[in-house]
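Quick question, first post here. What does this chain look like in 3D?
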Amino acid sequence: QVQLVESGGGLVQAGGSLRLSCAASGIILNINVMGWYRQAPGNQRELVARISRGGVTNYADSVRGRFAVSRDNAKNTVYLQMNSLKPEDTAVYYCNAADKWISPGVNYWGQGTQVTVSS
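> Answer (accepted):
Ran it through. Tokens below.
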């Protein structure tokens, strides 16, 4: 089992910045990909950004150039630096940890952290 604990959400004005963190603990040897998804009311959960243990990244088109995902493998922690935030970025952000990019056999979720961007 893997536990994911998120922090860093909150309320920010449009144009502002926030940094999310997610620390993984437990049996994490088979975790390769860590990242962030988000879900706004009435919408499906969608990918925001992911990063592999080796540093390969994958971003949603809507956030590329504004958000940056990074990880510290020694601390088993993934970060999401969010800049130039827009009201449409408002959502619950979920940390994810998986064994591979596609069709993961192992897939864990955090409890979610609310990000609210006011106009």
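The two ends are 40 Å apart (CA to CA).
Residues 17 and 83 are 4 Å apart (CA to CA).
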